[in-house]
Amino acid sequence: RRASVYGVSYFTSANRAANEKNLPLAADYYLSAGLAFLRVRDERLRDEQNLNTTIARLTQTCFPAMRKDEFDARPQLDEKFKSFVETLDANNVNGRYGVALADLRREYTEARRRLKLR
User: Fold this and answer.
1) CA distances from 64 to 3, 107, 116 (A)
2) Which residues lie closer than 8 Å to 32 by C-beta, 6 or more apart?
3) What is the SS3 string spanning 30-68?
């Protein structure tokens, strides 16, 4: 249960950072929120709506606007992303998160390669 509380706290901080246009910090918080939402053992208690919103914000807001140097300045983003994708993949029963995983990997890879903003 605590994982969900932490998830909401990270999610709120991520939204605040995104509104302030600090997208590397927002991505960091969104990844933490997503991990917390996924760590709720009982799927009936899992906050799927905020988990899906977290994934959407990463793929549609954060990663498309980030560059390689922002990842270099925050090396923990790589580790958190790896953990998040591994946890999401482990919970990918019947392809439930298949599209989300593909989108996350694609946007992350493009952001890591981008030297300038689009």
Assistant:
1) 28, 6, 11
2) 6, 10, 14, 80
3) HHHHHHHHHCCCCHHHCCHHHHHHHHHHHHHHHHHHCCH
Burial class of 87 by CB neighbour count within 10 A (0 to 12, 13 to 18, 19+): middle
Show contacts of 14-18: CB within 8 Å, 24+ apart: 14/54, 14/57, 18/57, 18/61, 18/62
Q: For residues 24 and 66, is the Cβ–Cβ distance under 8 A? A: yes
Mapping DSSP to helix (H, G, I), strand (E, B) and coil, where does residue 118 land?
A: coil
pTM for this model (two decimals):
0.91
pLDDT in tens, the chain (118 residues): 566 788 889 999 999 999 999 999 999 999 999 999 988 776 666 778 889 999 999 999 999 999 999 999 999 999 999 999 999 999 888 888 999 999 999 999 999 999 876 5
Q: Which residues contact 75 (CB under 8 A, 6 or more apart)?
A: none
